[in-house]
Amino acid sequence: MQNASATRNDVRPRRPLRAWFDVRRRHMGSWAFAINRLTGLGLAAYLFLHLAVLSTLLQGEAGWDRFLQLARSPFFLLLDVVLIFGILFHGLNGIRVALVGMGVGARQHRALFWVLMAIGFVLLAYSAWKVFTI
Amino acid sequence: MAEVERTFRVFRYKQGQAAPSYQTFKVKAGPRTTVLEALQEIRRTQDRTLILRHSCHHASCGTCGMRVNGQEVLSCVTNVQELGAETVLVEPINNIPLVADLVVDMGGFYERYVDAHMPYIRQSEFEPDADLPEGIAQYTRYENCLECGLCVSACPVMGSTSDYLGPAALAAAWRVVAEPRGQDAGRAAEAALEWVDNENGCWRCHVAYECTEVCPSDVDPGGSIMALRRKLTGRKFRRLLRLER
Hints:
- The complex is a heterodimer.
- By secondary structure, chain A is mainly α.
- Chain A has one domain (about 5-45, about 70-135).
- Chain A is globular and about 55 Å long.
- Chain A contains six helices and no strands.
- Chain B is of the alpha+beta class.
- Chain B has two domains: about 5-105, Roll (Ubiquitin-like (UB roll)); about 105-240, Orthogonal Bundle (Fumarate Reductase Iron-sulfur Protein, Chain B, domain 2), CATH 1.10.1060.10.
- Chain B has seven helices and nine strands, in the order ββαβββββαββααααα.
- Chain B has helices at about 35-45, 105-115, 150-155, 165-180, 185-195, 210-215, 220-240; strands at about 5-10, 20-30, 65-70, 70-75, 85-90, 100, 105, 120-125, 140.
- Chain B is elongated, with a radius of gyration of 21 Å.
- At the A-B interface, helix 1, helix 2, helix 3 and helix 5 of A face helix 7 of B.
């Protein structure tokens, strides 16, 4: 076949980000895969942000108090809820991936996903209520 | 359902062109018109340079696999009107080298089986002693897999690396393990497990199960990959506990 393999790189290069995140017309597993990646990247970014926030302690009590004032704003509290969503989704879906990935419950992987997501939803609702009421 | 007119937006590319493009055609589709028939109609009446693969017209050969409105399907059994869209976007399957228009080069896909000495047609267990017609060496047992490549196209991991063995080849490996056939079955099963037990084998899968969702032949490649992992995980634990050598 003339130049068939050469065309792969020329006109149809692999697009990993598109393959991972373009979930149009895809099914539950692909949505879970894509959200798992997004939350994973988000949590990794949060780790650095967290360290940066902790470094304000170096500025003494005044610096930390300024941060606490910011942390109590409604927008920041909403970000806390987004963070909790990321932790819950990544953690609970991670349990499904680890179990199914070892061949445990592979046939029930859809049911496992929805049960874990139901648990996650309850935990998220409770956490959001706590975040905004404490 | 009456005949309706649909707009077909078809992926076009010919060797030597700098980039692919999309071409639009208007096609009349009856209640039973399939995407493949519509494309053949385009070839017959509007553009004879449109290149596509097909053979059986009844979901047996797997040659007419393509992406229709973003989803991997066999075009011969995909009804145009049932798509429920005014515009039908038709593209070649992903993650396999493009030849032209809707045709991809399946050579590398098939080589995955040959490289591993994986039989995708095996000696029949049903007629081992039958009289054979002249010209064939043995009756063969057809596997469910059509070798259409839809699973490879839909897999998000295949979209980021060509090193991954991919769902079709891994499903074939699991068949060798799960359904041992022939005199050398034990050794073939061992070889298959060894072949898939690495970072580009069954452990590369990220459990999206899109391969199983798009498979037109109920092969369940995702389930097969997990079955390979279960087998290998059990073996690793037994070896760790020195229950198996």
